[in-house]
Fold each of these.
Amino acid sequence: MPGTSITAPKQALTKGVRFQGDMLYMLLDDGRELGMPLAWSERLSSANPEQRNNWELIGRGSGVHWPDVDEDISVAGLLGVPD
């Protein structure tokens, strides 16, 4: 339509993670949580609790990095969309 602008949806960003049982939950800045079985990441599933809890945000929240086990997981990857 003339004069109508369409904007792309806001990129989902993470603000943190939590672990519960055999699951990783990524906490998004819009209030959603994305869950992932730890079995999907060999590095995280074999990491100890201290290594799992040592994480840092990457790309201003586009993902999470675990330096002790050299693992990166992006929000887009969990959603199944291209980064």
Amino acid sequence: MHGYEEHTDRIRKRLRRVEGQIRGVAQMVDDDRYCIEILTQIAAATKALQAVALELLGDHLSHCVADAIEAGGPDADAKIAEATEAIARLVRS
């Protein structure tokens, strides 16, 4: 069971909204809209996607990582390293 399982519907809904935003950006390009308007919409879509990523990260930390730490052993160290790498990727993006 993944940590986000309780929130799957909400996450899917948010991702569909981001998908719609991206389609809207593509349509703006097709319509030859003003650059700044397109950049504004890209920034909004990026923020929305980052919000989904943070929600998934929080669920991962509170479920998967917490459970591994409670169990102890090498799996705990591996989950902590995995979470650290995921956070680093998010920070770089």
Amino acid sequence: MPRKKVVQTELVEQEYQLLQKTAEKRGVTIKHGLREAIQQWISAYTPMSEDPLLKVKPVKTGVKTDSSRLDKLLYEEKRK
């Protein structure tokens, strides 16, 4: 299990009330809502070049595929 860190901040009363109300409406805890907000903030400000998903190397599976007709299958209008 990854090691966890505690992060603290201060909110003005109005910010806290809005946070609490929004969390209640969504049926989540304030803690969960803040984690979601942090994840979205990180995603918004992390360059795509640093995204670990885009660094995955292709894997040879041994399965032969033919993508030559893919565009036609996906985008051709259905004939009546």
